[in-house]
Design a protein that fits this description.
By secondary structure, this protein is α+β, with helices and mostly antiparallel strands. It folds into four domains: 244 residues, no CATH class; 121 residues, Gyrase A, domain 2 (2-Layer Sandwich); 108 residues, no CATH class; 61 residues. The protein is built from 20 helices and 21 strands. The longest helix has 24 residues.
Length: 623
């Protein structure tokens, strides 16, 4: 197995080729409608991915807002390259030990999926040949590029995709590693290290969607698969491992198909009349509406379209994904029949019509449009044909729980050509010297400093740096809060409340400062911090209200002793029978009453003292 990463990080400030802000907005001030057509690249060839997208014949609606100008609408030439964004990209390249190019040349990358109004994305190579070290292993950095981010997709309706232009043009640093990552876990570690290095520049945007990873995965005997736009770092290892399992399944399937001498006949049959009376809602409903039903014959494929031994992977799903990419709802294949209103007699009649035997299979495509249905059927046939070769090279979209879905053919070199509207930018010796003099601390050095200066454990320092919490940590520690306490609050308690209650929950620095101050003043114990945070997540306007809503109130030393002595007195028989071993069950009962109101260690000490005193009163511990 080989894995490579492409890390895409948005930069703060202004957009790459205009002065518009990089903040997203839900305000819509108007819209424009476009159709896009592919153009040839520098080598006078249309890229396969561009041709695929153009064949969908979609219309694109672009919503305009306060962070747009005529540049994003492709109604005005782009302005010169954003110099601050270029400095950030050059700094990142220097941190990675890359060789900088002598001159920045802007290129156009043809993209006609609607994510750019112009039909291309502007991109520039900044540096090559660097390395990043993770856990004592060096990984190659092939390139560092600076490019425009795409528009964000906000809706879809029949034949029309809706994009918002606020994200279009935001500066994006792209870092591509070599294919030398050996596992999903290692891929996640490399992504974490690169993300921490990018944040160290203090020039990046923060929040969900501001950093994305593309994963390139291949196995021995297979071909490269690109998983495009992974946003959840925690799922990187799952995406890699499940893609490896998918490729292993496809390689095993290839061996079985070749042994059977399987093949895919070139003709697609119109079986609309044959299925007009079947009970399947997709097929009969399409026929009633005047649509078409097409059949793809799959000689030797019987029994191979479904899952094996209850596994997740199945060829039928692969065929259906390719059909959906043409705009149809899905397919019906013979391995799932009889069923859904289609009888054994219906299946036998269809096989007879197609000239198929017991070892053969078929797939049915139904659609109201004969053109769209034929495109989908041809894609199903092409994907089945590719199964005879093993693993087709393609781009896939990430889905929840680590699975992926076919998106489009993988793009190649034919989509690039020079940008004629933006002049080149020389990378001068003076500029490099200025940037070298102001390079930030590398993540590894930061972790060692945190451990030495603040006594943090290696795991806590790692979580702070990789979690992007370094700035808030140093600010809160600078306000005289305990370094270890601050680190645990930022890396454990806040994320736990966010995961359990409110994804994206991220209290402001001032609220965290107030929470720590209230805790230090004895308004509640550190064990109660999660309850206070939970009230903030529910909408409490400040810490004072959150503490009141959480039910926590300060517990004085004398009141604690009274509660402990009462509890021990109520369980004197337990103390008489078990002596010091009565601590564990009594501690559980005690914490139900005082949790979050007093430090846990102090509560435990008070309970042990009360048990000891009661034993002495009873005449010593039992024999």
């Amino acid at each position: 197995m080989k894995v490579g990463l492409e890390v895409h990080q948005q930069l703060a400030g202004a957009k790459l080729h205009c002065g518009c802000p990089t903040e997203l907005s839900e305000t819509v001030e108007g819209s424009i409608l476009r159709r896009l057509r592919p153009s040839v690249g520098e080598e006078h060839v249309v890229d396969a991915a561009a041709a695929f997208q153009a064949a969908r014949r979609l219309t694109y609606r672009y919503e305009l807002g306060p962070s747009n100008c005529l540049v994003e609408m492709d109604e005005e030439p782009p302005r010169p390259l954003n110099e601050e964004a270029l400095d950030a990209a050059l700094s990142v390249a220097l941190l990675l030990g890359c060789r900088l190019v002598d001159e920045i040349e802007i290129m156009r990358k043809i993209v006609v999926d609607g994510s750019n109004t112009s039909g291309f994305q502007r991109t520039a190579l900044v540096a090559v040949d660097g390395t990043v070290e993770v856990a004592g292993r060096r990984h190659a950095i092939l390139s560092v590029c600076l490019e425009e981010d795409a528009a964000r997709k906000v809706g879809e309706r029949d034949g029309e995709l809706v994009y918002r232009l606020d994200r279009l043009g935001i500066p994006l640093i792209e870092i591509a590693t070599g294919p030398d990552i050996a596992s999903g876990a290692e891929a996640k570690e490399v992504a974490q290290e690169i993300g921490a290095l990018l944040r160290a520049t203090r020039k990046v945007r923060r929040g969900i969607g501001t950093i994305r990873e593309d994963l390139n995965v291949s196995t021995e005997g297979g071909r490269r698969i690109e998983i495009k736009g992974v946003q959840e770092l925690r799922l990187i290892d799952s995406y890699v491992e499940k893609e490896v399992a998918r490729q292993e399944f496809l390689l095993g399937l290839r061996a079985e198909l070749q042994q059977r001498a399987a093949r895919v006949p070139s003709d697609v049959a119109n079986v609309t009349d044959e299925v007009a009376g079947v009970g399947h809602s997709l097929l009969s409903g399409t026929v009633r509406r005047g649509g078409i039903v097409l059949a793809v014959s799959l000689v030797g494929f019987a029994g191979l379209l479904g899952s094996k031994s209850g596994g997740e992977e199945r060829l039928g799903r692969e065929l259906a994904d390719h059909a959906r990419s043409a705009g149809v709802g899905g397919i019906v294949h013979s391995d799932e029949l009889p069923g859904h209103g289609i009888t054994e007699e219906d299946v036998a009649r269809l096989k007879a019509r197609l000239g198929l035997g017991a070892s053969d299979a078929f797939a049915l495509v139904a659609d109201s449009s004969s053109d769209r249905g034929m495109r989908a059927a041809l894609r199903v046939a092409a994907r089945a044909e590719a199964a005879l070769e093993g693993i087709p090279e393609e781009t896939r979209d990430p889905l929840p729980a680590g699975r992926t879905r076919y998106s489009r053919p993988i793009p190649g070199r034919y989509r690039m050509y020079p940008e004629t509207d933006v002049p080149p930018v020389p990378v001068t010796v003076e500029r490099i010297a200025r940037l070298r003099a102001t390079l930030p601390e590398r993540p590894g050095a930061t972790r060692h400093r945190l451990e030495g200066e603040h006594g943090l454990s290696p795991e806590l320092s790692r979580q702070l740096v990789y979690g992007g919490e370094l700035d808030r940590f140093e600010e809160l520690v600078g306000r005289a809060h305990s370094a270890v306490r601050v680190a645990r609050l930022l890396t454990q308690e806040v994320p736990e409340v966010a995961a359990a209650m409110a994804p994206g929950f991220d209290p402001p620095l001032g609220s965290l400062d107030e929470l720590l101050t209230a805790e230090e003043r004895g308004q509640f114990a550190k064990e109660g911090a999660s309850r206070v945070l939970a009230e903030l997540a529910r909408g409490a306007p400040n810490i004072e209200v959150a503490v009141a809503a959480s039910g926590l109130k300060g517990l004085g030393r004398e009141e604690l002793v009274q509660i402990v002595e009462r509890l021990v007195g109520e369980h004197v028989d337990l103390v008489r029978a078990r002596g010091g071993e009565a601590f564990s069950p009594l501690m559980g009962d005690l914490m139900k009453e005082v949790r979050g109101r007093r430090d846990g260690a102090e509560v435990a000490a008070a309970l042990r003292e009360a048990i000891r005193a009661k034993q002495e009163q009873l005449g010593g511990p039992p024999p």
